[in-house]
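Q: Hi! First time asking for a complex rather than a single chain. Here are the components, and I think there are two in total. Is that enough to go on?
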Amino acid sequence: MGFGARLMAAAEATDRVLAAALDPATRVPARLAEATRYAVLGGGKRFRPLLVIEAAALFDAPADAATTVGAAFECLHAYSLVHDDLPAMDDDDLRRGRPTVHKAFDEATAILVGDGLQALAFELITSPAVPAARAGALANVLALAAGNAGMVGGQYCDLNAFDLDEEGVGRMQAMKTGALIAAACEAGAVLAGAEDEHRVRLRSFGEHLGAAFQLADDLLDVEGTTAETGKRVGKDAAGRKATIPARFGAEEAHRRLEARVAAARACLEPYGERAAVLVEACRFVAERRS
Amino acid sequence: MGFGARLMAAAEATDRVLAAALDPATRVPARLAEATRYAVLGGGKRFRPLLVIEAAALFDAPADAATTVGAAFECLHAYSLVHDDLPAMDDDDLRRGRPTVHKAFDEATAILVGDGLQALAFELITSPAVPAARAGALANVLALAAGNAGMVGGQYCDLNAFDLDEEGVGRMQAMKTGALIAAACEAGAVLAGAEDEHRVRLRSFGEHLGAAFQLADDLLDVEGTTAETGKRVGKDAAGRKATIPARFGAEEAHRRLEARVAAARACLEPYGERAAVLVEACRFVAERRS
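A: Yes, that's all I need. Here is the structure of the assembled complex.
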Protein backbone atom coordinates (compact mmCIF):
# COMPACT_ATOMS: atom_id res chain seq x y z
CA MET A 1 0.00 0.00 0.00
CA GLY A 2 1.48 3.38 -1.03
CA PHE A 3 1.57 6.52 1.09
CA GLY A 4 -1.66 8.00 -0.29
CA ALA A 5 -3.60 4.81 0.46
CA ARG A 6 -2.12 4.62 3.96
CA LEU A 7 -3.09 8.22 4.67
CA MET A 8 -6.61 7.55 3.41
CA ALA A 9 -6.91 4.39 5.51
CA ALA A 10 -5.70 6.26 8.59
CA ALA A 11 -8.21 9.04 7.90
CA GLU A 12 -11.10 6.57 7.56
CA ALA A 13 -10.15 4.73 10.74
CA THR A 14 -9.77 8.03 12.61
CA ASP A 15 -13.14 9.30 11.41
CA ARG A 16 -14.82 6.08 12.55
CA VAL A 17 -13.46 6.56 16.08
CA LEU A 18 -14.38 10.27 16.10
CA ALA A 19 -17.87 9.70 14.71
CA ALA A 20 -18.54 7.06 17.38
CA ALA A 21 -17.23 9.36 20.11
CA LEU A 22 -19.48 12.18 18.85
CA ASP A 23 -22.60 10.07 18.43
CA PRO A 24 -25.58 12.48 18.49
CA ALA A 25 -27.52 10.05 20.70
CA THR A 26 -25.57 11.03 23.80
CA ARG A 27 -26.81 13.56 26.35
CA VAL A 28 -24.63 16.31 24.90
CA PRO A 29 -26.71 19.38 23.90
CA ALA A 30 -27.64 18.85 20.23
CA ARG A 31 -26.27 22.08 18.78
CA LEU A 32 -23.01 21.77 20.72
CA ALA A 33 -22.64 18.21 19.42
CA GLU A 34 -23.34 19.45 15.89
CA ALA A 35 -20.73 22.21 16.17
CA THR A 36 -18.19 19.74 17.55
CA ARG A 37 -18.77 17.36 14.65
CA TYR A 38 -18.49 20.32 12.25
CA ALA A 39 -15.12 21.19 13.76
CA VAL A 40 -13.55 17.77 13.76
CA LEU A 41 -15.31 15.76 11.05
CA GLY A 42 -15.07 18.50 8.41
CA GLY A 43 -12.15 17.19 6.43
CA GLY A 44 -8.52 17.47 7.40
CA LYS A 45 -5.79 15.16 6.25
CA ARG A 46 -5.51 13.24 9.53
CA PHE A 47 -1.76 13.54 9.28
CA ARG A 48 -1.13 13.32 13.04
CA PRO A 49 -3.19 10.11 13.37
CA LEU A 50 -1.16 8.63 10.51
CA LEU A 51 2.05 9.43 12.42
CA VAL A 52 0.74 7.75 15.57
CA ILE A 53 -0.44 4.70 13.63
CA GLU A 54 2.77 4.28 11.62
CA ALA A 55 5.06 4.93 14.60
CA ALA A 56 3.10 2.39 16.64
CA ALA A 57 3.30 -0.15 13.79
CA LEU A 58 7.12 0.11 13.82
CA PHE A 59 7.02 -1.56 17.23
CA ASP A 60 4.04 -3.85 16.63
CA ALA A 61 1.60 -2.01 18.91
CA PRO A 62 -2.06 -3.05 18.53
CA ALA A 63 -3.63 -1.18 15.58
CA ASP A 64 -6.99 -0.50 17.28
CA ALA A 65 -5.32 1.22 20.19
CA ALA A 66 -3.12 3.23 17.82
CA THR A 67 -6.20 4.42 15.94
CA THR A 68 -7.80 5.64 19.15
CA VAL A 69 -4.61 7.40 20.24
CA GLY A 70 -4.41 8.96 16.77
CA ALA A 71 -8.00 10.19 17.07
CA ALA A 72 -7.08 11.81 20.39
CA PHE A 73 -4.26 13.73 18.68
CA GLU A 74 -6.67 14.81 15.95
CA CYS A 75 -9.12 16.15 18.58
CA LEU A 76 -6.34 18.20 20.13
CA HIS A 77 -5.29 19.50 16.72
CA ALA A 78 -8.89 20.36 15.78
CA TYR A 79 -9.44 22.20 19.06
CA SER A 80 -6.33 24.31 18.45
CA LEU A 81 -7.57 25.32 15.01
CA VAL A 82 -10.98 26.36 16.36
CA HIS A 83 -9.43 28.53 19.07
CA ASP A 84 -6.68 29.94 16.83
CA ASP A 85 -9.37 31.12 14.38
CA LEU A 86 -11.32 33.07 17.06
CA PRO A 87 -11.76 36.85 16.62
CA ALA A 88 -9.53 37.54 19.65
CA MET A 89 -6.78 35.36 18.14
CA ASP A 90 -6.04 35.10 14.39
CA ASP A 91 -9.60 36.20 13.44
CA ASP A 92 -9.99 33.85 10.47
CA ASP A 93 -13.27 33.31 8.60
CA LEU A 94 -12.21 30.32 6.48
CA ARG A 95 -10.81 26.93 7.41
CA ARG A 96 -10.60 23.96 5.07
CA GLY A 97 -12.68 25.94 2.57
CA ARG A 98 -15.61 26.40 4.95
CA PRO A 99 -16.65 29.06 7.47
CA THR A 100 -14.74 28.71 10.74
CA VAL A 101 -16.72 27.45 13.76
CA HIS A 102 -17.35 30.90 15.25
CA LYS A 103 -18.67 32.03 11.85
CA ALA A 104 -20.86 28.97 11.22
CA PHE A 105 -22.12 28.99 14.84
CA ASP A 106 -21.09 31.72 17.27
CA GLU A 107 -18.12 32.73 19.35
CA ALA A 108 -19.22 31.21 22.68
CA THR A 109 -19.98 27.94 20.95
CA ALA A 110 -16.58 27.94 19.25
CA ILE A 111 -14.79 28.48 22.58
CA LEU A 112 -16.78 25.62 24.10
CA VAL A 113 -16.25 23.34 21.08
CA GLY A 114 -12.49 23.80 21.50
CA ASP A 115 -12.65 23.21 25.23
CA GLY A 116 -14.72 20.08 24.72
CA LEU A 117 -12.41 18.72 22.02
CA GLN A 118 -9.42 19.08 24.31
CA ALA A 119 -11.28 17.11 26.99
CA LEU A 120 -12.34 14.53 24.38
CA ALA A 121 -8.69 14.05 23.40
CA PHE A 122 -7.88 13.01 26.97
CA GLU A 123 -11.06 10.95 27.24
CA LEU A 124 -10.10 8.97 24.13
CA ILE A 125 -6.45 8.48 25.05
CA THR A 126 -7.51 7.00 28.39
CA SER A 127 -10.49 5.02 27.05
CA PRO A 128 -10.80 1.21 27.28
CA ALA A 129 -9.46 0.91 23.70
CA VAL A 130 -6.02 1.92 24.99
CA PRO A 131 -4.11 -0.48 27.29
CA ALA A 132 -4.50 0.81 30.87
CA ALA A 133 -0.79 0.34 31.54
CA ARG A 134 0.07 2.90 28.85
CA ALA A 135 -2.82 5.37 29.17
CA GLY A 136 -1.25 7.57 31.84
CA ALA A 137 2.07 7.93 29.99
CA LEU A 138 0.26 8.67 26.72
CA ALA A 139 -1.95 11.30 28.33
CA ASN A 140 1.17 12.88 29.81
CA VAL A 141 2.86 13.08 26.39
CA LEU A 142 -0.28 14.69 24.97
CA ALA A 143 -0.66 17.14 27.88
CA LEU A 144 2.94 18.35 27.63
CA ALA A 145 2.52 18.95 23.89
CA ALA A 146 -0.76 20.79 24.48
CA GLY A 147 0.15 23.12 27.32
CA ASN A 148 1.94 26.38 28.03
CA ALA A 149 5.34 24.93 27.04
CA GLY A 150 3.81 23.48 23.85
CA MET A 151 0.92 24.48 21.59
CA VAL A 152 -0.63 27.08 23.92
CA GLY A 153 2.73 28.77 24.52
CA GLY A 154 3.47 28.67 20.79
CA GLN A 155 0.19 30.33 19.92
CA TYR A 156 0.82 32.96 22.58
CA CYS A 157 4.26 33.71 21.07
CA ASP A 158 2.79 33.78 17.59
CA LEU A 159 0.22 36.40 18.60
CA ASN A 160 2.97 38.47 20.20
CA ALA A 161 5.75 37.63 17.72
CA PHE A 162 6.49 40.94 16.10
CA ASP A 163 9.84 41.45 17.76
CA LEU A 164 11.05 37.83 17.79
CA ASP A 165 14.57 37.15 16.53
CA GLU A 166 15.35 34.14 14.38
CA GLU A 167 15.89 31.88 17.37
CA GLY A 168 12.62 33.10 18.84
CA VAL A 169 10.76 32.27 15.62
CA GLY A 170 12.21 28.76 15.64
CA ARG A 171 11.25 28.24 19.28
CA MET A 172 7.75 29.58 18.71
CA GLN A 173 7.16 27.27 15.76
CA ALA A 174 8.61 24.28 17.62
CA MET A 175 6.04 24.90 20.36
CA LYS A 176 3.07 25.80 18.17
CA THR A 177 3.30 23.09 15.49
CA GLY A 178 6.28 20.91 16.31
CA ALA A 179 5.28 19.85 19.80
CA LEU A 180 2.11 18.01 18.75
CA ILE A 181 3.72 16.37 15.69
CA ALA A 182 6.69 15.24 17.77
CA ALA A 183 4.36 13.97 20.48
CA ALA A 184 2.32 11.99 17.92
CA CYS A 185 5.47 10.18 16.77
CA GLU A 186 6.61 9.63 20.35
CA ALA A 187 3.15 8.35 21.33
CA GLY A 188 3.45 5.49 18.85
CA ALA A 189 6.57 4.28 20.66
CA VAL A 190 5.00 4.85 24.09
CA LEU A 191 1.89 2.91 23.14
CA ALA A 192 4.08 0.00 22.06
CA GLY A 193 6.08 0.14 25.28
CA ALA A 194 9.23 0.60 23.17
CA GLU A 195 12.50 1.30 24.98
CA ASP A 196 13.51 4.89 25.76
CA GLU A 197 16.06 4.89 22.94
CA HIS A 198 13.25 4.42 20.40
CA ARG A 199 11.00 6.89 22.16
CA VAL A 200 13.71 9.54 21.91
CA ARG A 201 14.45 8.64 18.28
CA LEU A 202 10.81 8.89 17.23
CA ARG A 203 10.49 12.18 19.06
CA SER A 204 13.54 13.60 17.23
CA PHE A 205 12.06 12.41 13.95
CA GLY A 206 8.84 14.22 14.82
CA GLU A 207 10.66 17.42 15.79
CA HIS A 208 12.39 17.62 12.42
CA LEU A 209 9.18 16.65 10.63
CA GLY A 210 7.26 19.30 12.56
CA ALA A 211 9.78 21.97 11.61
CA ALA A 212 9.53 20.89 7.97
CA PHE A 213 5.74 20.98 8.23
CA GLN A 214 5.77 24.54 9.53
CA LEU A 215 8.21 25.71 6.86
CA ALA A 216 5.99 24.18 4.17
CA ASP A 217 2.96 25.86 5.75
CA ASP A 218 4.66 29.25 5.77
CA LEU A 219 5.76 28.74 2.16
CA LEU A 220 2.17 27.95 1.21
CA ASP A 221 1.11 31.27 2.68
CA VAL A 222 3.61 32.94 0.34
CA GLU A 223 3.26 30.73 -2.73
CA GLY A 224 -0.17 29.05 -2.43
CA THR A 225 -3.67 30.19 -3.30
CA THR A 226 -6.85 30.21 -1.25
CA ALA A 227 -8.34 27.68 -3.67
CA GLU A 228 -5.52 25.26 -2.88
CA THR A 229 -5.25 25.80 0.84
CA GLY A 230 -8.88 26.41 1.78
CA LYS A 231 -7.85 29.35 3.95
CA ARG A 232 -6.82 32.96 3.51
CA VAL A 233 -3.26 33.32 2.14
CA GLY A 234 -0.79 36.21 2.28
CA LYS A 235 -1.93 36.93 5.82
CA ASP A 236 1.48 36.32 7.40
CA ALA A 237 3.07 39.19 5.48
CA ALA A 238 -0.08 41.31 5.95
CA GLY A 239 -0.09 40.66 9.69
CA ARG A 240 3.71 40.92 9.97
CA LYS A 241 3.85 37.38 11.31
CA ALA A 242 7.27 36.03 12.13
CA THR A 243 7.97 33.31 9.56
CA ILE A 244 11.15 32.16 7.85
CA PRO A 245 9.97 32.97 4.29
CA ALA A 246 8.80 36.40 5.46
CA ARG A 247 12.15 37.11 7.11
CA PHE A 248 14.65 35.34 4.84
CA GLY A 249 12.82 34.72 1.57
CA ALA A 250 11.32 31.63 -0.06
CA GLU A 251 14.63 30.27 -1.32
CA GLU A 252 16.18 30.13 2.13
CA ALA A 253 13.00 28.57 3.49
CA HIS A 254 13.09 25.84 0.83
CA ARG A 255 16.73 25.13 1.69
CA ARG A 256 15.89 24.76 5.38
CA LEU A 257 12.89 22.60 4.58
CA GLU A 258 15.07 20.14 2.67
CA ALA A 259 17.58 20.06 5.53
CA ARG A 260 14.82 19.22 8.00
CA VAL A 261 13.47 16.46 5.77
CA ALA A 262 16.96 14.94 5.53
CA ALA A 263 17.41 15.09 9.30
CA ALA A 264 14.00 13.49 9.86
CA ARG A 265 14.78 10.64 7.47
CA ALA A 266 18.12 10.05 9.16
CA CYS A 267 16.32 9.35 12.45
CA LEU A 268 14.49 6.46 10.78
CA GLU A 269 17.55 4.68 9.37
CA PRO A 270 17.70 1.92 11.98
CA TYR A 271 14.19 0.79 11.00
CA GLY A 272 14.95 0.26 7.30
CA GLU A 273 12.01 -0.74 5.11
CA ARG A 274 9.63 -0.92 8.08
CA ALA A 275 9.71 2.88 8.22
CA ALA A 276 8.92 3.34 4.50
CA VAL A 277 5.59 5.11 5.15
CA LEU A 278 7.14 7.51 7.66
CA VAL A 279 9.92 8.26 5.15
CA GLU A 280 7.27 9.05 2.56
CA ALA A 281 5.52 11.24 5.13
CA CYS A 282 8.55 13.55 5.00
CA ARG A 283 8.19 13.93 1.25
CA PHE A 284 4.44 14.48 1.64
CA VAL A 285 5.07 17.29 4.10
CA ALA A 286 7.70 18.95 1.92
CA GLU A 287 5.59 18.90 -1.20
CA ARG A 288 2.10 19.54 0.15
CA ARG A 289 0.02 22.18 -1.59
CA SER A 290 -2.73 22.44 1.05
CA MET B 1 -8.04 19.14 63.19
CA GLY B 2 -11.39 20.84 62.45
CA PHE B 3 -12.85 21.50 59.03
CA GLY B 4 -11.48 25.01 58.66
CA ALA B 5 -7.95 23.86 59.44
CA ARG B 6 -8.29 20.94 57.03
CA LEU B 7 -9.47 23.23 54.26
CA MET B 8 -6.57 25.59 54.90
CA ALA B 9 -4.06 22.73 54.93
CA ALA B 10 -5.48 21.41 51.65
CA ALA B 11 -5.27 24.90 50.14
CA GLU B 12 -1.65 25.31 51.20
CA ALA B 13 -0.66 21.91 49.86
CA THR B 14 -2.51 22.59 46.60
CA ASP B 15 -0.86 25.98 46.17
CA ARG B 16 2.58 24.44 46.70
CA VAL B 17 1.95 21.95 43.86
CA LEU B 18 0.51 24.66 41.60
CA ALA B 19 3.31 27.14 42.32
CA ALA B 20 5.92 24.50 41.50
CA ALA B 21 4.10 23.57 38.28
CA LEU B 22 3.95 27.24 37.28
CA ASP B 23 7.56 28.06 38.15
CA PRO B 24 8.51 31.20 36.16
CA ALA B 25 11.91 29.67 35.33
CA THR B 26 10.42 27.35 32.70
CA ARG B 27 10.44 28.17 28.99
CA VAL B 28 6.81 29.31 29.05
CA PRO B 29 6.45 32.91 27.72
CA ALA B 30 6.76 35.16 30.78
CA ARG B 31 3.49 37.09 30.43
CA LEU B 32 1.50 33.91 29.71
CA ALA B 33 3.03 32.32 32.81
CA GLU B 34 2.13 35.43 34.82
CA ALA B 35 -1.47 35.37 33.59
CA THR B 36 -1.74 31.66 34.38
CA ARG B 37 -0.49 32.23 37.92
CA TYR B 38 -2.92 35.15 38.26
CA ALA B 39 -5.77 32.84 37.24
CA VAL B 40 -5.01 29.91 39.47
CA LEU B 41 -3.00 31.27 42.41
CA GLY B 42 -5.30 34.24 43.07
CA GLY B 43 -7.25 32.83 45.99
CA GLY B 44 -10.05 30.33 45.78
CA LYS B 45 -11.11 28.02 48.58
CA ARG B 46 -9.52 24.89 47.04
CA PHE B 47 -12.70 23.02 47.85
CA ARG B 48 -12.28 20.42 45.07
CA PRO B 49 -8.73 19.56 46.18
CA LEU B 50 -10.06 19.10 49.71
CA LEU B 51 -12.65 16.64 48.41
CA VAL B 52 -10.00 14.64 46.51
CA ILE B 53 -7.69 14.61 49.54
CA GLU B 54 -10.38 13.61 52.04
CA ALA B 55 -11.96 11.00 49.76
CA ALA B 56 -8.51 9.50 49.13
CA ALA B 57 -7.76 9.48 52.87
CA LEU B 58 -10.91 7.40 53.50
CA PHE B 59 -9.17 4.56 51.65
CA ASP B 60 -5.60 5.28 52.80
CA ALA B 61 -4.30 6.52 49.45
CA PRO B 62 -0.88 8.25 49.60
CA ALA B 63 -1.35 11.90 50.60
CA ASP B 64 1.24 13.32 48.17
CA ALA B 65 -0.48 11.75 45.19
CA ALA B 66 -3.87 12.97 46.44
CA THR B 67 -2.52 16.52 46.68
CA THR B 68 -1.33 16.39 43.07
CA VAL B 69 -4.64 14.97 41.86
CA GLY B 70 -6.42 17.69 43.83
CA ALA B 71 -4.26 20.35 42.17
CA ALA B 72 -5.25 18.92 38.78
CA PHE B 73 -8.93 19.36 39.67
CA GLU B 74 -8.23 22.93 40.77
CA CYS B 75 -6.57 23.67 37.40
CA LEU B 76 -9.62 22.41 35.58
CA HIS B 77 -11.91 24.47 37.82
CA ALA B 78 -9.77 27.60 37.36
CA TYR B 79 -9.75 27.16 33.58
CA SER B 80 -13.54 26.93 33.52
CA LEU B 81 -13.86 30.18 35.49
CA VAL B 82 -11.51 32.03 33.12
CA HIS B 83 -13.45 30.90 30.05
CA ASP B 84 -16.89 31.39 31.64
CA ASP B 85 -15.95 35.01 32.41
CA LEU B 86 -15.03 35.82 28.76
CA PRO B 87 -16.98 38.54 26.91
CA ALA B 88 -18.52 35.96 24.56
CA MET B 89 -19.70 33.90 27.55
CA ASP B 90 -20.89 35.40 30.87
CA ASP B 91 -18.93 38.67 30.29
CA ASP B 92 -17.83 39.16 33.89
CA ASP B 93 -15.35 41.82 35.04
CA LEU B 94 -14.86 40.62 38.62
CA ARG B 95 -13.80 37.29 40.07
CA ARG B 96 -12.69 36.71 43.64
CA GLY B 97 -12.74 40.47 44.11
CA ARG B 98 -10.19 41.13 41.34
CA PRO B 99 -10.44 41.90 37.61
CA THR B 100 -11.06 38.76 35.57
CA VAL B 101 -8.16 37.48 33.43
CA HIS B 102 -9.37 39.06 30.19
CA LYS B 103 -9.70 42.39 32.03
CA ALA B 104 -6.32 42.20 33.78
CA PHE B 105 -4.59 40.94 30.60
CA ASP B 106 -6.52 40.59 27.33
CA GLU B 107 -9.01 38.29 25.69
CA ALA B 108 -6.58 36.18 23.65
CA THR B 109 -4.42 35.67 26.72
CA ALA B 110 -7.46 34.63 28.76
CA ILE B 111 -8.49 32.04 26.16
CA LEU B 112 -4.94 30.66 26.12
CA VAL B 113 -4.65 30.68 29.92
CA GLY B 114 -7.79 28.55 30.11
CA ASP B 115 -6.55 26.20 27.40
CA GLY B 116 -3.20 25.85 29.12
CA LEU B 117 -4.77 25.21 32.52
CA GLN B 118 -6.88 22.39 31.09
CA ALA B 119 -3.70 20.83 29.66
CA LEU B 120 -1.90 21.37 32.98
CA ALA B 121 -4.68 19.51 34.78
CA PHE B 122 -3.98 16.43 32.66
CA GLU B 123 -0.22 16.92 32.94
CA LEU B 124 -0.45 16.92 36.74
CA ILE B 125 -2.85 14.00 37.02
CA THR B 126 -0.46 11.86 34.93
CA SER B 127 2.75 13.19 36.50
CA PRO B 128 5.28 11.01 38.36
CA ALA B 129 3.67 12.04 41.68
CA VAL B 130 0.63 9.89 40.81
CA PRO B 131 1.01 6.09 40.68
CA ALA B 132 1.31 5.10 37.01
CA ALA B 133 -1.21 2.28 37.48
CA ARG B 134 -3.95 4.80 38.40
CA ALA B 135 -3.05 7.75 36.17
CA GLY B 136 -5.03 6.65 33.12
CA ALA B 137 -8.21 5.95 35.09
CA LEU B 138 -7.88 9.25 36.94
CA ALA B 139 -7.37 11.21 33.72
CA ASN B 140 -10.44 9.50 32.30
CA VAL B 141 -12.59 10.53 35.27
CA LEU B 142 -11.33 14.11 34.87
CA ALA B 143 -11.88 14.15 31.10
CA LEU B 144 -15.46 12.90 31.36
CA ALA B 145 -16.25 15.58 33.94
CA ALA B 146 -14.64 18.26 31.78
CA GLY B 147 -16.13 17.52 28.37
CA ASN B 148 -19.30 18.01 26.37
CA ALA B 149 -21.29 15.71 28.66
CA GLY B 150 -19.91 17.53 31.72
CA MET B 151 -18.69 21.05 32.37
CA VAL B 152 -18.53 22.20 28.75
CA GLY B 153 -22.02 20.91 28.01
CA GLY B 154 -23.30 22.50 31.23
CA GLN B 155 -21.87 25.88 30.34
CA TYR B 156 -23.36 25.57 26.85
CA CYS B 157 -26.79 24.86 28.35
CA ASP B 158 -26.40 27.70 30.84
CA LEU B 159 -25.71 30.18 28.02
CA ASN B 160 -28.77 28.92 26.15
CA ALA B 161 -30.94 28.21 29.19
CA PHE B 162 -33.80 30.63 28.79
CA ASP B 163 -36.37 28.05 27.86
CA LEU B 164 -35.21 25.19 30.12
CA ASP B 165 -37.84 23.45 32.22
CA GLU B 166 -37.12 22.41 35.81
CA GLU B 167 -35.63 19.08 34.76
CA GLY B 168 -33.46 20.88 32.23
CA VAL B 169 -32.18 23.27 34.89
CA GLY B 170 -31.28 20.34 37.13
CA ARG B 171 -29.48 18.56 34.30
CA MET B 172 -27.61 21.71 33.28
CA GLN B 173 -26.41 22.33 36.83
CA ALA B 174 -25.42 18.69 37.29
CA MET B 175 -23.21 19.01 34.22
CA LYS B 176 -21.85 22.49 34.86
CA THR B 177 -21.00 22.26 38.56
CA GLY B 178 -21.90 18.78 39.74
CA ALA B 179 -19.77 16.79 37.31
CA LEU B 180 -16.43 18.13 38.54
CA ILE B 181 -17.34 17.93 42.24
CA ALA B 182 -18.60 14.37 41.81
CA ALA B 183 -15.47 13.47 39.85
CA ALA B 184 -13.25 14.93 42.59
CA CYS B 185 -14.91 12.67 45.18
CA GLU B 186 -14.74 9.67 42.84
CA ALA B 187 -11.07 10.39 42.05
CA GLY B 188 -10.15 9.91 45.70
CA ALA B 189 -11.54 6.36 45.57
CA VAL B 190 -9.93 5.70 42.15
CA LEU B 191 -6.52 6.90 43.36
CA ALA B 192 -6.77 4.51 46.30
CA GLY B 193 -7.78 1.63 44.05
CA ALA B 194 -10.95 1.23 46.13
CA GLU B 195 -13.57 -1.26 44.96
CA ASP B 196 -16.29 -0.17 42.55
CA GLU B 197 -18.87 -0.08 45.34
CA HIS B 198 -16.92 2.69 47.06
CA ARG B 199 -16.22 4.49 43.82
CA VAL B 200 -19.97 4.61 43.10
CA ARG B 201 -20.75 5.67 46.66
CA LEU B 202 -18.25 8.52 46.63
CA ARG B 203 -19.54 9.62 43.26
CA SER B 204 -23.13 9.73 44.57
CA PHE B 205 -21.95 11.71 47.57
CA GLY B 206 -20.30 14.15 45.18
CA GLU B 207 -23.40 14.46 43.01
CA HIS B 208 -25.56 15.44 45.97
CA LEU B 209 -22.85 17.73 47.29
CA GLY B 210 -22.49 19.35 43.86
CA ALA B 211 -26.21 19.99 43.65
CA ALA B 212 -26.12 21.52 47.14
CA PHE B 213 -23.14 23.63 46.11
CA GLN B 214 -24.99 25.00 43.08
CA LEU B 215 -28.13 25.75 45.09
CA ALA B 216 -26.03 27.63 47.65
CA ASP B 217 -24.31 29.51 44.82
CA ASP B 218 -27.62 30.52 43.28
CA LEU B 219 -28.93 31.59 46.69
CA LEU B 220 -25.82 33.75 47.17
CA ASP B 221 -26.63 35.51 43.93
CA VAL B 222 -30.06 36.35 45.40
CA GLU B 223 -29.10 36.95 49.03
CA GLY B 224 -25.37 37.79 49.00
CA THR B 225 -23.47 41.01 48.38
CA THR B 226 -20.55 41.73 46.07
CA ALA B 227 -18.38 42.45 49.12
CA GLU B 228 -19.04 38.93 50.42
CA THR B 229 -18.81 37.02 47.15
CA GLY B 230 -16.11 38.98 45.30
CA LYS B 231 -18.22 38.93 42.15
CA ARG B 232 -21.21 40.70 40.72
CA VAL B 233 -24.51 39.58 42.35
CA GLY B 234 -28.09 39.79 41.13
CA LYS B 235 -26.89 38.91 37.63
CA ASP B 236 -28.91 35.68 37.40
CA ALA B 237 -32.22 37.53 37.70
CA ALA B 238 -30.90 40.35 35.50
CA GLY B 239 -29.76 37.89 32.85
CA ARG B 240 -32.82 35.67 33.24
CA LYS B 241 -30.60 32.74 34.17
CA ALA B 242 -32.33 29.50 34.93
CA THR B 243 -31.83 28.89 38.66
CA ILE B 244 -34.00 27.30 41.32
CA PRO B 245 -34.26 30.45 43.50
CA ALA B 246 -35.12 32.52 40.41
CA ARG B 247 -37.83 30.07 39.38
CA PHE B 248 -39.20 28.82 42.70
CA GLY B 249 -38.07 31.34 45.31
CA ALA B 250 -35.42 31.30 48.02
CA GLU B 251 -37.48 29.26 50.47
CA GLU B 252 -37.92 26.36 48.08
CA ALA B 253 -34.22 26.55 47.20
CA HIS B 254 -33.26 26.36 50.89
CA ARG B 255 -35.53 23.32 51.32
CA ARG B 256 -33.90 21.54 48.39
CA LEU B 257 -30.44 22.47 49.63
CA GLU B 258 -31.12 20.80 52.98
CA ALA B 259 -32.45 17.68 51.24
CA ARG B 260 -29.29 17.42 49.14
CA VAL B 261 -27.07 17.84 52.20
CA ALA B 262 -28.96 15.05 53.95
CA ALA B 263 -28.64 12.76 50.93
CA ALA B 264 -24.92 13.49 50.66
CA ARG B 265 -24.36 12.69 54.32
CA ALA B 266 -26.31 9.45 53.99
CA CYS B 267 -23.81 8.25 51.35
CA LEU B 268 -21.03 8.53 53.93
CA GLU B 269 -22.70 6.49 56.69
CA PRO B 270 -20.63 3.31 56.14
CA TYR B 271 -17.43 5.25 56.85
CA GLY B 272 -18.47 6.55 60.27
CA GLU B 273 -16.03 8.88 62.01
CA ARG B 274 -13.44 8.50 59.22
CA ALA B 275 -15.70 10.63 57.00
CA ALA B 276 -16.11 13.43 59.56
CA VAL B 277 -14.38 16.05 57.39
CA LEU B 278 -16.51 15.19 54.34
CA VAL B 279 -19.64 15.40 56.53
CA GLU B 280 -18.53 18.86 57.63
CA ALA B 281 -17.91 19.74 53.98
CA CYS B 282 -21.66 19.43 53.43
CA ARG B 283 -22.36 21.96 56.15
CA PHE B 284 -19.65 24.24 54.77
CA VAL B 285 -21.31 24.15 51.35
CA ALA B 286 -24.78 24.82 52.72
CA GLU B 287 -23.72 27.77 54.83
CA ARG B 288 -21.08 29.42 52.68
CA ARG B 289 -21.31 33.15 52.15
CA SER B 290 -18.75 33.43 49.35
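A: Chain A is about 70% helix and 0% strand. Let me know if you'd like any chain examined more closely.
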